[in-house]
Amino acid sequence: MGYLTEQIADEVGRLTQDRGRQYFLRGAVESIDGDNFFVCAVVQGTIRYTVEIKSIDEFIDYSCNCPFFERDFEPCKHIWAAALKAEQHGYLRGRDGLPSVTLGL
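User: That's the sequence. What structure does it adopt?
Assistant: Structure tokens below.
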């Protein structure tokens, strides 16, 4: 696990992590832009979903416009895939490039 996925792993079920990893590996994260504090990604699922992950006051917050997240406010496979891609790009390392602490919704 990487610096970001390690922080949110306790909030993401094993099956969701596995599905998100498959999305990441098959290139479903179609676009991603970010910095040390914010990431916006488009992940191709049934349709294209928008994922946002933020580092706010040293905590990680995330959202996705997929039905699963909007219903349960739990991290989905799209968030996990975007987090893996963010790690690949070195995004969301927080202040001075250091990892943040998890917040979640």
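The first strand starts at residue 29 and ends at 34.
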